[in-house]
Amino acid sequence: MQEMLQDYLNYLSVERGLSQNTLESYARDLRQYLQYLKEKKNIEIKETTQATVIGYLLQLQAKGKATATLSRSLAAIKSYYHFLFREAKIERDPTINLDAPKQEKRLPRVLSVEDVSNLLEQPDLKTPAGIRDRAMLEVLYATGLRVSELVSLKISDLNLEMGYIKCFGKGSKERIVPLGSVASKYVKHYLEHARKFLASSLNEETLFLNHHGHRLTRQGFWKIIKKYAESINLENDITPHTLRHSFATHLLENGADLRSVQEMLGHADISTTQIYTHLTKSKIKEVYEKAHPRAL
């Protein structure tokens, strides 16, 4: 089973070009499922039935796993069986009629424009690390990048004169995102006055560096944004993704069209972007109820 799993992961990496994070997620979910087959059922992957898969999902549910976790696990298992069936490793696909459990749509946390401005002003611009942090926060809010895309930026991905950056999203898909004059100003300031004090090598191409002179990790930036959020008493669930959500919502509130926001966020399906329309509708209703004399 391990050999077949490795073949599948190689297929995802080479032929479908999935990111390392997605590959690790698929591998983790599938190894847990295969462990279940070995320890609980003592059966091979070729012998499994639909009842086997359902039994595994019920076990996850009994352990208190969220609906989103169940859906993600089933998606990985279905994709794996589909691959094995196509490669003639199994005679039938036991997941062919299995649907993922329905999930409640949770609206993402969004900051107000005032809270975003306050957060972005927290870094100390008298230190190289503070200048870097301000530049990163400005870029994140100006572009709506995923944090993995932000920390992967190279100097060559910047075009400050034209005001855009190039990034590589899920599936290594390239997209061009406007940067804006404010973020461009802080990135330029970082390049001229801070990066040279962080870099350990002249050959380092990564844009944002940690104190060792290497690429900043996602976890490292998560700690940075937490620190600044706590300094202004924002609620403790602020993450780098909060600025991405705020970016999209503020654009839509100010008249941007959904397709443009989808393009900037790098969403393959517009239905993923549509969740932000619920947020803007809520905002419109709130404004109406406060402003209209007969609203209440």
Secondary-structure blueprint of this entry?
Elements: H1 2-14, H2 20-41, H3 50-62, H4 67-86, H5 113-120, H6 128-143, H7 147-151, E1 158-159, E2 164-168, E3 174-178, H8 181-193, H9 195-198, H10 218-231, H11 240-253, H12 258-265, H13 270-273, H14 275-291
Antiparallel strand pairs: 1-2, 2-3
Tell me what the structure shows.
The model has no long low-confidence stretch (mean pLDDT 86). The protein is mainly alpha-helical. The chain folds into two domains: 2-86, Tyrosine recombinase, N-terminal domain (DNA polymerase, domain 1); 113-289, Intergrase catalytic core (hpI Integrase, Chain A, Orthogonal Bundle). The protein has helices spanning 2-14, 20-41, 50-62, 67-86, 113-120, 128-143, 147-151, 181-193, 195-198, 218-231, 240-253, 258-265, 270-273, 275-291; strands at residues 158-159, 164-168, 174-178. Helices cover 58% and strands 4% of the residues. Strand 1 (158-159) and strand 2 form a beta hairpin. A three-stranded antiparallel beta sheet has the order 1-2-3, with no helix packed on it.
